[in-house]
From TrEMBL, chain A:
The chain crosses the membrane at residues 7-29, 63-88, 100-120, 148-171, 192-214, 252-272. It is a multi-pass membrane protein. Pfam families: BPD_transp_1. One of its GO terms (cellular component) is plasma membrane. One of its GO terms (biological process) is transmembrane transport. Keywords: Cell membrane, Membrane, Transmembrane, Transmembrane helix, Transport. Residues 63-273 form the ABC transmembrane type-1 domain. PROSITE patterns: ABC_TM1 (PS50928). Its main location: membrane. This is Sugar ABC transporter permease.
TrEMBL record, chain B:
PANTHER family: MALTOSE-BINDING PERIPLASMIC PROTEIN, MALTOSE_MALTODEXTRIN-BINDING PERIPLASMIC PROTEIN. InterPro entries: SBP, TAT_signal. GO terms for cellular component: ATP-binding cassette (ABC) transporter complex, substrate-binding subunit-containing. It comes from Kribbella sp. HUAS MG21. Keywords: Signal, Transport. One of its GO terms (molecular function) is maltose binding. One of its GO terms (biological process) is maltodextrin transmembrane transport. This is Sugar ABC transporter substrate-binding protein.
Length: 282, 423
């Protein structure tokens, strides 16, 4: 009787969450799956939209540059976030201020960040070229010559503060005892970093990389605002391509299929990262 | 028989409260315009066209009909995205500004906007199509049906020039031909000033290829950018302005079409090619610039591209008659004249063109000359339902040629192949 009552209570409290996920996640996913079975004219195509994606050069291009964008952002972003965390974990004057300042870009709307950098990097009227010219350096045209790397740079700039906070939390969980023992054994700062800090931060690194991977694979707003997916299709990431298929080509069936394929990729890559993390922990 | 105590009642009460709250929150979202009472009238409009002349008409219309006017303004790409989503959901605005001729036809053939011929036929006083210039009307018709009413009629291809900069370089008159244009651009390119500025928006290439007698599309023959030699010449010439003659900076890929106008306003470019919509921002932003406006250039021929917004009524609008009434007020000649006075915009009515105020304005006279040489639009492209898809392919090719310096011939061939496949 008590167990039954406990179960009822548990269900009462669980029901809102279950309803939330069913109504706002699983039903739309199901609806999308259904939409993905029809072409732009509403004719049933079965899995036609899904197989079409593997032969569509624009989709394949967007997928490949998204992987490049994700890899670049994860590697550089993690390294920058970790470096900042290690520096600001030392007892420096004003470190709280630095930590807060570094977090500001992450707290700023992506639209503002996009417009801000768009204006800074504009080769003709942007402030960066004026500064470069003022010190006698040649101006840059990165938005045209290295558009994807520029988007990676902006993403790293905007997310470094958040990554830093995560690594700071991880660093503060490492007992100082380990460092003391290593110091007594004669280990220098680099040795202590590679032998103690890095291995013990493995769970944080896995978390940072999974969150980062999910975010970067779904990136849409930044290239849309900064370059409009161009020049050509150089920054037309997967989510941007998907948006073009849905709202420009008006082919919601194909767009639904593309979004489900992205879901599968995100799931597979996230699970793989979790596996790697588990092995590293073991 | 279960026994109830105070604790179980509390648990039950809490559960029901939470369920109710979540249920309310998770109930299907009531679309904004449905949530509002039926006396709300929603209009989608381009952010750059929010003239006081239109605001006054809309405000008065709301008062006359006791309506709450919900005038929403967007950039064109955002308006298109929102409208596409609205058509799918069935929750549509009451009146929409159409980005350019043909868009309404595309929506109309898909059943998303109304054909307006019956409204126009029943409203003789409005004067449609008799009082409207033919090119603005024909471009909005397909198989005898009209899917939008012209609001503006403009020409992309006008030459904007800084009189002071040209004069300093020894030119008292603006260039009229491609050769003269290049000569002036070379002479005015100095220090931080470029002789001209090209746009990252591919629609701004139209005047140049039209001046080589190139048609963007011939849907019947599944051909694009023909004849090929003219297209190659036009696009190569544009590319050479940047990379060979170095008289224009390479534009930056963006969704904003106002880059050349901003450079011109900052006195960093001596000339650029655009339409009347850039007159207002230059006058307001840089009143000290001695702005010159010249007729379209002559390549193989003198030509410009037709532009100009329209008005359309979604098929599921709450009260199409009411929407039509607002169209007649917004496209009335006195409102056209007020908008022209305010923003320098050119209009589609014959009675507007013959008004003394318009005839006496030298800029408007130049625009009228440009309108006389606009190239014909291929209405079959809009009717194919593939215009947006093909324009996106053109954007990719154009930016590859102009921004990324891709070889023109292969880029054009690639575009033709992909556009043909899309059809």
């Amino acid at each position: 009787m008590i167990r039954r009552r406990q179960a009822l209570t548990a269900w009462l409290f669980l029901t809102p969450a279950v309803l939330f996920f069913v109504l706002l996640f699983f039903l739309p996913i199901g609806n999308q799956l259904l939409t993905g079975l029809y072409d732009a004219d509403g004719a049933f195509t079965g899995l036609g939209n899904f197989t079409r994606a593997f032969e569509d050069p624009e989709v394949l291009h967007s997928f490949l540059i998204t992987l490049a964008y994700a890899a670049g952002t994860l590697v550089v972003g993690t390294a920058v976030g970790l470096a900042l965390a290690v520096i600001l974990n030392q007892s420096l004057r004003g470190r709280t201020l630095f930590r807060s300042v570094l977090l500001i870009p992450y707290l700023t709307s992506v639209s503002i960040i996009g417009l801000l950098w768009r204006n800074i990097l504009d080769p003709q009227v942007g402030i960066l070229n004026r500064l470069l010219e003022a010190v006698g350096l040649p101006g840059q045209t990165w938005l045209s010559t290295h558009p994807l790397a520029t988007i990676v740079g902006i993403t790293v700039w905007s997310s470094a503060g958040y990554t830093m906070v995560l690594f700071l939390a991880g660093l503060q969980g490492i007992p100082g005892l380990y460092y003391e023992a290593a110091r007594i054994d004669g280990a220098g700062p680099w040795r202590r970093f590679f032998a103690i800090t890095l291995p013990l931060l493995a769970p944080t690194t896995v978390f940072v990389s999974i969150i980062g991977l999910i975010g970067t694979l779904q990136q849409f707003a930044l290239p849309y605002i900064v370059t409009g997916g161009g020049p050509g299709n150089a920054t037309s990431l997967y989510a941007h391509r998907l948006f073009i298929v849905a709202f420009n080509d008006n082919d919601f069936g194909y767009a639904s299929a593309l979004s489900l394929l992205l879901l599968v990729v995100v799931l597979v890559l996230s699970l793989a990262q979790l596996r790697i993390g588990d092995r590293a922990d073991a | 028989m279960p026994s109830y105590n105070r604790r179980s009642f509390l648990q039950l009460g809490l559960g029901v409260t939470v369920l109710g709250a979540v249920g309310a929150g998770c109930s299907p979202a009531t679309p904004a315009s449905r949530k509002q009472d039926s006396r709300t009238f929603t209009i989608y409009w381009n952010a750059g066209h929010g003239y006081q002349a239109y605001k006054e008409v809309i405000d008065q219309f709301g008062k006359d009909h006791d309506l709450q006017m919900n005038w929403q303004k967007f950039q064109w790409p955002d308006l298109t995205t929102k409208l596409t989503a609205d058509f799918r959901s069935g929750n549509v605005p009451d009146l929409v500004e159409e980005v350019s001729a043909g868009t309404g036809t595309q929506y109309g053939l898909a059943g998303n906007v109304l054909a307006l011929d019956e409204f126009a036929a029943a409203d003789k006083e409005f004067g449609f199509p008799g009082d409207f210039l033919d090119q603005a009307v024909v471009a909005r018709q397909y198989e005898g049906k009209t899917y939008s009413i012209p609001l503006h009629l403009t020409a992309n291809g006008l030459l904007f020039y800084n009189k002071e900069l040209l004069s300093a370089a020894g030119f008292e008159k603006p260039p009229a031909t491609w050769d003269e244009f290049l000569e002036v651009a070379r002479a005015t390119t100095k220090d931080k000033v470029s002789g001209c500025a090209l746009n990252s928006d591919p629609s701004y290439a139209a005047p140049y290829y039209n001046q080589q007698k190139v048609d963007f599309s011939d849907v019947g023959a599944k051909q694009f950018m023909t004849p090929a030699d003219g297209a190659l010449k036009a696009m190569q010439w544009m590319q050479d302005l940047i990379y060979t003659h170095k008289v224009s900076p390479a534009p930056v890929a963006t969704t904003d079409y106002s880059g050349p106008q901003k450079l011109f306003s900052a006195k960093r470019a001596a000339m650029f090619v655009s339409g009347p919509w850039d007159i207002g921002p230059i006058r307001q932003g840089s009143p000290d610039i001695d702005l010159g406006l010249a007729v379209p250039l002559t390549g193989a021929v003198q030509s410009a591209a037709m532009a100009g917004a329209g008005l359309m009524i979604p098929a599921k609008a709450k009260d199409p008659k009411l929407s039509w009434e607002l169209i007649t007020k917004l496209a009335a000649v006195k409102v056209e004249l007020a908008a022209t006075k305010e923003a320098g915009m050119s209009m589609p009515r014959k009675s507007w063109a013959s008004d003394p105020a318009v005839a006496a304005d030298p800029n408007l006279a130049t625009i009228a000359k440009a309108l006389a040489v606009v190239a014909e639009n291929d209405v079959a492209l809009s009717a194919s339902g593939k215009a947006a898809q093909i324009n996106e392919l053109w954007k990719k090719s154009y930016q590859q040629m102009i921004i990324q310096h891709a070889p023109v011939g292969p880029a054009l061939d690639d575009f033709r192949k992909q556009a043909g496949a899309a059809l």
